[in-house]
Write a structure and sequence with these properties.
The complex is a heterodimer of chains A (387) and B (283). Chain A folds into two domains: 222 residues, 3-Layer(aba) Sandwich (Rossmann fold); 148 residues, Beta Barrel (OB fold (Dihydrolipoamide Acetyltransferase, E2P)). In chain A, 22% of the residues lie in helices and 32% in strands. In chain A, strands 11, 12, 13, 14, 18, 21 and 22 form a seven-stranded antiparallel sheet that branches. Chain B has 283 residues and is mostly helical. Chain B contains twelve helices and no strands. In chain B, helix 2 packs across helix 12. Chain B is globular and about 70 Å long. Chain B starts with a helix and ends in an 11-residue tail after the last helix. Classes of the chains: A alpha+beta (387), B mainly alpha (283).
């Protein structure tokens, strides 16, 4: 198998009439890298994928595979394979015929078709299904056939457009692992679109976060989780998402109502971000003790909601006067309501708390992120010197 | 939930009543057809059961000959079949490619085209009789079967395009996109992917355009003036059009005329049930 090609985006812009769907998309991948595109609905992630596949033309900029400009190549000459959310299997053809279709189009000999189909079927465990029609197999099997048909084409670049969103949770987890393994084995550059946090975090070498057609941040899952570039990424990446508190800094102390934490920032308004695991419950069961030599700022809070989710749990805390920002993913456990601070509690400790209980909490000052109150861009909290 | 007894009774009563209302006139036609020399209005009884059933009307309709001894029924049946089938076939061939284009390609007139065709369907056919007569005369096709086929086929094309476009529109776009990525060109996508999937639609459209031509009377009566070239609806009209209307034979003829349609319906009903596309996308 040939060396994989990197994918390069240079100032890619896409408009539909007056509507700008993508603007200034500028990044390049390593050869064989697994890139996941995430973002809310309508952020342009699927459009970007379709531009790579050649199903849409771009309005400005260049898309290149290696040093080959793809812009004006027809889809079949781009060496791009795509797996659709809806599978897009040909319903009047058997699984074997579906797999063989790309070869049939290229007028491959019958023996070659049979050989390649057998190889791919073996790789994906599709042998028992070859004679069946798409309507006779399950959703997960259909998705595997769709992936198989993509493999048959031997593309240089793989595109997946929300391939798991029509599957149930258990199957999704399983095929997610299959895709990851397959990509590891093939080592081909892969673009994968999803709105699922877990898929993005588990699959990606790097994640590209898109919002309103603009790339918000590109980085490894860890980078995005620990050092979000702005408020949008902070709220979008991670389930539950980061607590964001609007408040004031005065003499190195951030405060929002009763909520206080030391922060190395100049005086003025600030949005403070803190992950749920960095809100420590003091004095309770499974509680963290303040580290030696630290000057703990302890904040009183009351438990308003308890959400046990199994391996951990979430406490929603009412801190008097604290101005918390709303959600980008309402509904998910621990995603919090408008005015509550969310803390995670490891293990079964969550069951030992009761509603209305008064607790003391402490934000881990080393893990707090600071964001500009207007632009939302991340600010440094290390030195406190920059603005 | 199991329906209650009174619900079942009421439902069935309504259904029976509706069926009776629909079937009653048909049964009268059947009685008329089976009564020798039967005349409209001469029968005062309410129940449409013939007192002396006889096949005489059917025999007479089928065996009638003209002055030259030509078996008119066979000629006319042949004409009707030929004209209707050819018109439906031509309509389909032209409509298939153009409806696919209207459904899938982006070009100027993509929206206006089908609308214009829809408008053309809104005028009663008679309005076009005079212009068509002039055109057929100029082409030297007046009074010929070919002329009639031409009229029916051109009438069928817009209808077929509308019908088939609707069917093509229901096929998910991902199918063509996937085929494009697989390397298939337009012709390949059309023949290998789209055509097999649109087969139910093809059957329905063929059936409707066949029936339209099969039942058509006005154009046939205007443009054909030779009894051996008549289509069956024209003959039917002639039976009751004069001073001595033969309603019994008319009834027999109309029943015979509806037989092929019933037969065709029966044959294609399998295709009328959609569901061939299930499994293409999602669950």
């Amino acid at each position: 198998m040939a060396e994989s090609l990197p994918l390069v985006f240079e100032g890619v812009e896409k408009r539909f009439g007056q509507t700008v769907v993508l603007s200034g998309v500028d990044f390049s991948t390593e050869p064989g890298e697994f890139i996941v595109l995430v973002g809310p609905s309508g952020c342009g992630k699927s459009t970007l994928l379709r531009c790579v596949a050649g199903l849409e033309t771009i309005s400005r900029g260049r898309i290149m595979a290696g040093d080959r400009v793809l812009n004006h190549l027809p889809p079949q000459d781009r060496g791009v394979g795509m797996v659709f959310q809806s599978y897009a299997l040909y319903p009047h053809m058997t699984v074997a015929q579906n797999l063989a279709f790309p070869l049939l189009v290229r007028k491959a000999s019958t023996s070659e078709q049979e050989r390649v189909v057998a190889d791919v079927a073996a790789m994906l465990g599709l042998e028992p299904l070859l004679r069946r029609y798409p309507r006779q197999i399950s959703g997960g099997q259909r998705q595997r056939v769709a992936i198989g048909r993509c493999l048959v084409r031997k593309p240089e670049i793989y595109c997946f457009d929300e391939p798991l969103s029509n599957l149930d949770a258990a199957l999704r987890a399983q095929i997610r692992v299959d895709i990851k393994n397959l990509q590891r084995r093939l080592r081909k550059t892969t673009l994968y679109v999803t709105h699922d946090q877990v898929e993005a975090m588990t699959l990606a070498d790097r994640i590209v976060v898109l919002d309103k057609g603009i790339v918000q941040q590109i980085g490894s899952p860890e980078e995005l989780y620990t050092r979000p570039a702005n408020r949008f990424v902070a709220r979008f990446i991670g389930t539950p998402s980061m607590n964001l508190v609007r408040g004031q800094v005065a003499h190195g102390m951030f405060s929002s109502g009763e909520l206080k934490v030391r922060v190395a920032r100049p005086d003025g308004p600030l949005v403070l971000g803190v992950r749920v695991e960095d809100v420590q419950i003091l004095g309770g069961p499974g509680a963290a003790e303040p580290g030696a030599g630290e000057d703990p700022v302890v904040v009183p809070a009351r438990i308003a909601v308890i959400e046990p989710v199994g391996e951990s749990g979430y406490l929603h805390l009412d801190v008097a006067g604290a101005a918390l920002e709303g959600d980008v993913q309402p509904g998910a456990p621990g995603s919090g309501s408008r005015h509550l601070l969310v803390a995670s509690v490891p293990g079964r400790a969550v069951f030992s708390y009761s509603l209305g209980q008064d607790v003391s909490i402490r934000l881990n000052p080393r893990r707090c992120r600071a964001f500009h109150p207007e632009s939302g861009a991340a600010l440094s909290v290390d030195s406190g010197g920059d603005a | 939930m199991k329906p209650r007894t009174w619900e079942v009774i009421v439902t069935h009563a309504i259904l029976l009543l509706a069926s009776a209302a629909t079937l009653y006139p048909v049964l009268w036609v059947l009685k008329l057809a089976l009564t020798e020399g039967g005349q409209l209005g001469s029968d005062a009884s309410l129940i449409p059961i013939p007192s002396h059933p006889s096949m005489a009307n059917f025999v007479a309709f089928v065996t009638v000959r003209d002055f030259n001894g030509n078996p008119l029924f066979l000629y006319q049946l042949g004409n009707s079949l030929l004209v209707s089938a050819t018109a439906a076939f031509i309509g389909l061939v032209f409509a298939l490619t153009s409806s696919y284009a209207y459904s899938r390609f982006v070009f100027t007139g993509r929206k206006a085209g089908p609308r214009l065709m829809l408008i053309s369907q809104m005028f009663p056919a008679v309005v076009t009789a005079v212009p068509l007569l002039i055109i057929l005369d100029a082409l030297g096709l007046f009074g010929t079967t070919a002329g009639l086929v031409l009229i029916y086929a051109t009438g069928a094309v817009p209808f077929c395009i509308w019908m088939l476009k609707g069917f093509f529109d229901t096929l998910p776009r991902e199918l063509d996109e996937s085929a494009r990525l697989d390397g298939a060109g337009h012709w390949m996508i059309f023949t290998r992917i789209m055509l097999p999937l649109v087969r139910p639609g093809l059957a329905v459209t063929a059936l409707f355009s066949f029936m339209t031509a099969w039942n058509e009377f006005i154009m046939a009566s205007i443009f054909i003036d030779d009894a051996t070239r008549y289509t069956l609806p024209v003959t039917l009209q002639q039976l009751v059009g004069g001073f001595d209307p033969d309603w019994g034979m008319f009834a027999a003829g109309s029943l015979l005329l509806s037989l092929p349609v019933v037969l065709v319906f029966y044959l294609v009903q399998r295709h009328l049930v959609a569901g061939l596309t299930s499994g293409a996308v999602k669950g």
